[in-house]
Write a structure and sequence with these properties.
311 residues; alpha/beta; Rossmann fold; N-(1-d-carboxylethyl)-l-norvaline Dehydrogenase, domain 2; 2 domains; 10 strands
Length: 311
C-alpha cells in the first residue's frame, strides 16, 4: 500500500513514522525547518513505547513529486484544510482514499467538498504527541490508536485493507459503528478544556481540580453535547460523565495543542474547536455562552498570531 502523510506534526509524524518503520511505502508532506531537517537528518520519534528513527524518509513540500497514492492520511491543522484539500490533488488516483485525522467536526465535510464524498473516510487519532523540534516527534501519552470508519457507516474493502496495514505496525486500530459519533466524542473532550487551558495557561491537572475551572469544563461539555444532539449525532447519554473519567486519568502536566499554539504565538485551531461549537450552535438554535466567551477572550491573541493586529 502506498501512503502519503499530509502534515507531519505530532499525529502525522508519529503514525506515518510507525508505518514507514514497518516497511510500508510512505511519503511525507512537510514544510519549513521540519522539512529541511527530515531531508538531511531523517525523522526521529521519541516515544513512551520505544524510540525509533527513519533515516531517509521520502519527504517533500510538493505533492506533485509523490504522485498518486492509495491512501492519504490528513493531519494538518484544521485551519489549513481548505488549502490542503486543493494542494493534494496530485496525490489523487482513481481509487485514492483520503482519511481525516483532524480534531474538530468540520474537516470531513471540507475535504468532501473539494475531493468528493466517495473518497473521504473519517478517523480519530488517540495520542498525545507533538513536534519537540524540527525532525523530532515526541509521544508522551495515550496508547497510540487509530479509529477509522466510512462516513456513512458499515464496512468496506478499503477500510479493511487500511486497517490491516496499520495493525501490521503494532498500532491499535478500532472500527466503530459510527465514526461520526467518535469524532464528536473527541470534539466534546477537546472543546471542554482546550480553550480554557489557553486562557488560564494551566495544565489539565489544575483545571480538573480547581472548582472554578471544573465548572467551566462542565459547562463547555454540556453545550457541546446539546449542539451534537441538535445536529443529529447520537452521543451516549452519559458522554459527559465518561469524558470526566478520561480527563481524570490524564497526565496532570498535560496541555492541549490549542493551548500550546496560543502560548507560543502561533495560529491555533480556536475557530475549529470552540469557534465551531458557537457556529454550529447558531445554526441549530443552541445557546453556547461559555464557548462564546472563550472565543471572544482568545480572539486578540489569535489575530496577533495571524498578523491581523499588533500589540
Amino acid at each position: 500500500m502506498k501512503l502519503a502523510i499530509y502534515g507531519t506534526g505530532g499525529v502525522g509524524g508519529y503514525f506515518g513514522g510507525r508505518l514507514a518503520d514497518s516497511g510500508q511505502d510512505v511519503s511525507f508532506i512537510a514544510r519549513g525547518d521540519h522539512l529541511h531537517t527530515m531531508q538531511h537528518a531523517g525523522l526521529r520519534v521519541e516515544s513512551i513505547n520505544g524510540d525509533f528513527q527513519i533515516e531517509a524518509p521520502k519527504v517533500t513540500a510538493n505533492p506533485a513529486e509523490i504522485g498518486a497514492v492509495d491512501v492519504v492520511l490528513v493531519a494538518v491543522k484544521s485551519w489549513q484544510v481548505p488549502e490542503a484539500a486543493e494542494a493534494m490533488q496530485p496525490l489523487m488516483g482513481p481509487d485514492t482514499t483520503v482519511v481525516s485525522l483532524l480534531n474538530g467536526v468540520e474537516a470531513v465535510g471540507q475535504l468532501s467538498e473539494v475531493l468528493g464524498q466517495e473518497r473521504v473516510m473519517g478517523g480519530v487519532a488517540k495520542i498525545f504527541s507533538f513536534i519537540e523540534r524540527p525532525g523530532l516527534i515526541r509521544h508522551i501519552g495515550h496508547e497510540p490508536t487509530l479509529m477509522l470508519g466510512e462516513v456513512a457507516g458499515g464496512t468496506s474493502e478499503r477500510l479493511e485493507q487500511l486497517s490491516e496495514a496499520v495493525q501490521q505496525t503494532g498500532i491499535k486500530v478500532e472500527l466503530p459503528a459510527s465514526i461520526l459519533v467518535e469524532i464528536w466524542k473527541k470534539f466534546l473532550f477537546t472543546t471542554g478544556w482546550g480553550g480554557l487551558g489557553a486562557i488560564s495557561r494551566a495544565p489539565i491537572g489544575v483545571l480538573r481540580e480547581e472548582p472554578a475551572t471544573q465548572a467551566v469544563i462542565q459547562a463547555c461539555m454540556l453545550e457541546t453535547e446539546t449542539v451534537a444532539k441538535a445536529a443529529g449525532i447520537g452521543l451516549p447519554d452519559d458522554i459527559v460523565e465518561r469524558t470526566w473519567v478520561f480527563i481524570r486519568g490524564l497526565e496532570a502536566t498535560g496541555t492541549s495543542s490549542l493551548q500550546r499554539d496560543i502560548a507560543a504565538g502561533r495560529p491555533s485551531e480556536l475557530d475549529a474547536w470552540n469557534g465551531a461549537v458557537v457556529r454550529l450552535g447558531r445554526r441549530y438554535g443552541v445557546a453556547t455562552p461559555t464557548h462564546d466567551l472563550i472565543v471572544r477572550s482568545l480572539a486578540p491573541l489569535e489575530k496577533r498570531a495571524r498578523g491581523e493586529v499588533g500589540f
